[in-house]
Amino acid sequence: MQNPDINILQTEILSDNWYTLNKVTYSVLKKDGTTETQSREAYDRGNGAVILLYNQLSNTVILTRQFRLPTYINGNETGMLIEACAGLLDNDNPEDCIKRETEEETGYKISRVEKIFKAYMSPGSVTEILHFFIAEYSNEMKITDGGGLEEEGENIEVLELSFEEALKMIDTGEIKDAKTIMLLQHLRIKGIM
């Protein structure tokens, strides 16, 4: 349902180099009945999916570590970020996407996933909505080393950590990624781990 108080007046593409950065000018009907024109920038990179693999028997989770330029230029000394496996939908449905990304990044071939929720991660500037999943894994599901796709420039390290160690890494700041923190907390809050 469209918001009747918002009227898009103009959309200008500022950049479409990696993804699309738009400048959107719109009018908004305010509570006092007046109309105001505003302009904002919105980065459109498409929607994505994220998953946390967990093993109740061994009390472990699978995470990844890779270089993230935005964190590097914002003070992360190495630019390396520990996070849950994630990727863009690329015209797939969220479940197919996350199964593909799991195999590419971690080397685990999973068949059953549980969607737990979806959330906007940075709604003030990014259009992306992220679909959150969890899935159990076992050693028998490991079919490759993972590491991502070379043609996409991915160089991903796969980490198997105890659940308690992963939670401690939030406290120490070793895990700073919001989607990963949300998934780890979900496992704890729901009593899954």
TrEMBL record:
<dbReference type="InterPro" id="IPR004385">
    <property type="entry name" value="NDP_pyrophosphatase"/>
</dbReference>
<keyword id="KW-0378">Hydrolase</keyword>
<feature type="binding site">
    <location>
        <position position="105"/>
    </location>
    <ligand>
        <name>Mg(2+)</name>
    </ligand>
</feature>
<dbReference type="GO" id="GO:0005829">
    <property type="term" value="C:cytosol"/>
</dbReference>
<keyword id="KW-0479">Metal-binding</keyword>
<comment type="similarity">
    <text>Belongs to the Nudix hydrolase family. NudK subfamily.</text>
</comment>
<dbReference type="Pfam" id="PF00293">
    <property type="entry name" value="NUDIX"/>
</dbReference>
<dbReference type="GO" id="GO:0016818">
    <property type="term" value="F:hydrolase activity, acting on acid anhydrides, in phosphorus-containing anhydrides"/>
</dbReference>
<feature type="short sequence motif" description="Nudix box">
    <location>
        <begin position="87"/>
        <end position="108"/>
    </location>
</feature>
<comment type="subunit">
    <text>Homodimer.</text>
</comment>
<dbReference type="GO" id="GO:0019693">
    <property type="term" value="P:ribose phosphate metabolic process"/>
</dbReference>
<feature type="binding site">
    <location>
        <position position="86"/>
    </location>
    <ligand>
        <name>Mg(2+)</name>
    </ligand>
</feature>
<dbReference type="GO" id="GO:0006753">
    <property type="term" value="P:nucleoside phosphate metabolic process"/>
</dbReference>
<feature type="binding site">
    <location>
        <position position="154"/>
    </location>
    <ligand>
        <name>Mg(2+)</name>
    </ligand>
</feature>
<dbReference type="GO" id="GO:0046872">
    <property type="term" value="F:metal ion binding"/>
</dbReference>
<feature type="binding site">
    <location>
        <position position="101"/>
    </location>
    <ligand>
        <name>Mg(2+)</name>
    </ligand>
</feature>
<feature type="domain" description="Nudix hydrolase">
    <location>
        <begin position="44"/>
        <end position="183"/>
    </location>
</feature>
<keyword id="KW-0460">Magnesium</keyword>
<dbReference type="InterPro" id="IPR015797">
    <property type="entry name" value="NUDIX_hydrolase-like_dom_sf"/>
</dbReference>
<protein>
    <recommendedName>
        <fullName>GDP-mannose pyrophosphatase</fullName>
    </recommendedName>
</protein>
<dbReference type="InterPro" id="IPR000086">
    <property type="entry name" value="NUDIX_hydrolase_dom"/>
</dbReference>
